[in-house]
Amino acid sequence: MENEKFAQIFLELASLLELAEDNPFKIRAYGKAAQSIESFSGSIEDIYKKGGLKALQEIPGVGQHIAEKIEEYILTNKVSAREKLLKQFPPKFLELLTIQGMGPKTAVMLRKKIGIDSVDKLAKAAKAGKLKGLAGMGEKKEQNILRGIELKEKSRGRFLLSEATDYAHALVEWLQKVKDIDKIMPAGSLRRGCETVGDLDILVTAKSSKKIMDHFVKFPEVAEVLAKGETKSSVVLKNGMQADIRVVPPASFGAAAHYFTGSKQHNIHLRELGVKKGLKVNEYGIFKGKNKIAGKTEEEMFKTFGFPFIPPELRENRGEWEAAQKNKLPKLIELKDIKGDLHIHSPATDGTDPIEKIAKVAKKLGYEYIAITDHTESTRVAGGLTEKEMLKHFEEIDKINSKIKGITILKGAEVDILPDGTLDYSNEVLKEMDIVLAAVHSRFKMPEKEMTDRICKALKNKYVKILTHPTGRLIGEREPYAVNLEKVLKVAADTGTHIELNANPHRLDLNDIYCHKAKELGVKVVIATDAHNADSLYLMYFGVITARRGWLEKKDVLNTLPLKNLLNLL
After folding, report:
1. CA-CA-CA-CA torsion sign (189, 192, 196, 200)
2. 236 and 150 belong to one structural domain
3. What is the mean pLDDT of the chain?
4. pTM listed for this prediction
5. If phi over 0 gives left and psi between -120 and 50 gives alpha, with beta otherwise, what is residue 386?
6. What is the 3-state composition of the chain as percent helix, strand, coil, each rounded to the nearest 5?
7. Which whole-number Å values give the CA distances from 384 to 414, 418, 463, in the listed order?
8. Which helix (H) or strand (E) holds 515?
9. Residues 382 and 352: beta-carbon distance below 8 Å
């Protein structure tokens, strides 16, 4: 959580420098540092306290200049360079850059021409048609900006699953310091693994609720206490998320866990089943008249109605009850089933950690293999490699492979799908790779038919094995591009191509609905992190929980295969 603050500072600095049309190398350095810090697993503050500036510079992407700014923030709670830049712009001006379709040049131009300095003013001007006629602004661009504002509004008050998970883990750890606690469980949409979370629900059983409530409201990340009672308290955390804690009797823990985990529609179905059997179902248990007949465990809640336990990720009223009744619930994939990560970037393009370090962390995770899949030349913004540079890069991977034991590094690339559906590498180079990933990184605004045809054509290339982040979405930041994903999946089934579930919490692309569709069509999914540093390998968790929401089993996921089987299939 501390690292997020530092990452946000450098993201803001990068944005401010873009607005000021400053040095592009400095902008890129700040952006890279933010990315590295956000996914760094250690505590930045602890590292500084133990080893000072020198220790900070051992973090990937953090040089002396950036380390000094981290030190300044730790010592003074501000960064003077950021404060100075902020004074050049109105208070809400920076928010414009969070809107899809709004780049720094457009924001500066709109401010100069028609005085737009906030998202509210931008929305009013776009709705009134005042953007049309300005340099580079047509009706289509105006509509795109309005859609971007709408997307931002929809995501307001929602937090990425990763952020909610960090806060939930920290809160649980904090509460466990109270010795009276018996059981503790985060519930709600977090427990179901939803891609965004509105608030945190923590359930507790304990001998004394007073000590727990006193300790809960003293959690260091609490910004405001909304309510404090004997069995329920609510706070607002410093990131704006609400957190509620409920102390429930041990005899009702299962009922409360089921009720507060949801989803609403899943719970309604159980209550309706109860009505048909003359039973009352609520957060305290299952009652026949005044007699409580179940509620201590969740298993009891299901067993009373003749069902096996339904995993939280499936509780969306999307067929789980019918499957449970027929004893056909899937045996969902688990994190331990993953044998390797097939989408990783190295410092050859826009990664930050040496391949050796990535391989060592992957080995620690129990993986048999990883694939280094750097960008190709069309993705210039990420330092994409020419064909000649990529082949030289493969020679380096071969050398590292010969030195590292216990894990195999596969040679691959994330190859750009050009607007006409061809790839930006020749087949002569593609055939030298162990694995070829294909991705759309440009022209996101193509009409649906053109985008669909573009992707389908690429999947028909015999060397393409995986389509990465298939809709291009960034949750709450960028809408998916227009694409007929069902048609893409059918072509993937015909060509034997696999579809990535990108585990980065900002993407989670394929989403759970289309994971289920891929399963139905017999298309194997690849859960991969798109890691740009070693710590990002741990993001695999978020891909697995999304796969579970999509009903995927071990057999549905390509990278659960041992290395020998994987290579045979490829």
Report:
1. positive
2. no
3. 94
4. 0.89
5. beta
6. 50, 15, 35
7. 9, 14, 19
8. helix 512-521
9. no
Instruction: Say yes or no to pLDDT of 235 above 80.
Output: yes
Position 456 confidence tier, pLDDT thresholds 50, 70, 90: very high
Please state the separation of Cα 284 from the chain's center in Å.
34
**Residue 380 tokens, joined:** 């210039």
| Structural domain containing residue 259 | 252-325
CA distances from 391 to 359, 387, 403, 412, 462 (A): 20, 6, 19, 10, 20
Hey, is 248 helix, strand or coil?
coil
Whether residue 407 is contained in a domain is answered as yes
Residue position matching structure tokens 């902008």: 27
- 330 within some domain: no
| Whether pLDDT at 471 is above 80 | yes
Return the structure tokens found at 57: 């510079």
- pLDDT for 485 beyond 80: yes
Q: Which residue has the tokens 């990002």?
A: 536
Alpha carbon 314 to its chain's center: 19
How many C-beta atoms lie closer than 10 Å to residue 416's C-beta? Answer: 22
Measured CA to CA, the distance from residue 287 to residue 306 in angstroms comes to: 16
Per-residue pLDDT band for 1 (boundaries 50, 70, 90) equals low
Q: Which long-range contacts (CB under 8 A, 24 or more apart) does 266-271 make?
A: 266/315, 266/316, 266/317, 266/320, 268/317, 269/317, 269/321, 270/301, 270/305
The number of residues making up the chain comes to 570
Show the tokens assigned to 547: 């796969």
What are the DSSP E strand ranges found in 317-445? 340-344, 369-375, 408-416, 435-439
Amino acid letter, 233: S
Number of domains in the chain: 5
